[in-house]
Amino acid sequence: MESGSQAHSHLRHGQLVARCKGIAPALTAVVHPCDAESLEGAAEAAAQGLIVPVLVGPEAKIRAAAAAANLDISSFRLVPVPHSHAAAAEAVAMARRGEVEALMKGSLHTDELMHEVLQDKTGLRTGRRISHVYLFDVACYPKPLLVTDAAINIQPRLMEKRDICQNAIDLARLLGIETPKIAILSAVETVTDKLPSTIDAAALCKMAERGQITGGIMDGPLAFDNAINPEAARIKGLSSLVAGHADILLVPDLESGNMLAKQLTFFEGADGAGIVLGAWIPIMLTSRADPLRTRVASAAIALLTVDAHRRMAA
Question: What fold is seen in the domain 127-278?
Fold first, then answer.
């Protein structure tokens, strides 16, 4: 007999990909795709009509990786550059010139790509803080679950958390969650000066009341258990539209977010598709440890974001 996780079979990410049918694929710079995993992810996303890959990196290494993986990349445009640093710089420059609509990380390190993205004069900054959002498909949770920020902002300050929260709300609404519920996580449910994250949580809730954060319902501080489990919220006596029913988990810092994301992945078997928002264009920060279906789901999120940008520009 199949376990609940196996029977679930990550249906929500499949539904996400299905939502992209009929949308023109996103022209995507795949940055330094010099291993099999990077090329397989790009090729599968292309096969499913989500992206048109532009491979940016050392030509010999890319072709060698394709040959080793038995992948035909002859239909993909290849932009040759000497090394990973140059690949990141060229991909960002292509985005600034309007030649691509999204970026997908290949086999270079995240810091190397984001260094170019975050450059003041040559990068892809906007007026909004750049942040990362995971979209988790967790078998034991009754709906999609977003976690932010577990990849970019190490110790975000209050106003940075405001942008991180707004980025996640905007994505949730784009994914069809009309009024997302945001749980601002800490270790406890009460405000105390001993835990600065609880003070930030209270301030963020007040900012939402005053219209500084829009589009969602917020509550915090909340501990993880009572953010996602209605019974835990009941036992703690929490009367809240968010407690026990969160759509978005806003974590205090990168370390806690990263640990939470990996616990969901490796303990619960969850699939965590990821996207970077707040830049000129969406950025897919896929990992070599990610299964192919997660890479494809990340491309689907990117395409939905690109389609929203297209409609705004029309």
Answer: Isopropylmalate Dehydrogenase (3.40.718)
